[in-house]
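To fix ideas, we close by showing one paired sequence and structure record:
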Amino acid sequence: MREPGVEDATRRTRLATERTYLAWWRTGLTALAVAVGIGRIAPEVSHVRKWPYEVAGAGFGVLGIAFLVIGYARARAVEEALDRGEFAPFSRRLALGLLAAGLALGTATTLIVVLAR
């Protein structure tokens, strides 16, 4: 028999996991929209060399796809941990990888904008 409140806490955690999964989706779709904006729209309206924009856009596209995949994997890991009565910590390596990708793409985008001619 479960302790009082444990079932409600599990329900709240599962709902929070669902909201977090949807946040991963929003982030992924946003990165894909940025990919189109930087990779296709910006160079067309700016009349600049296209390839730097296309490379940055492709990077954001890959990042967007990664967010969708990671979001699914994370949601599954949390659900499975809940079923076992455990906690599924977020990988420090994955967090560092996402930080590195964000810093690289942010820096590249800033340089492209500043140096565009």
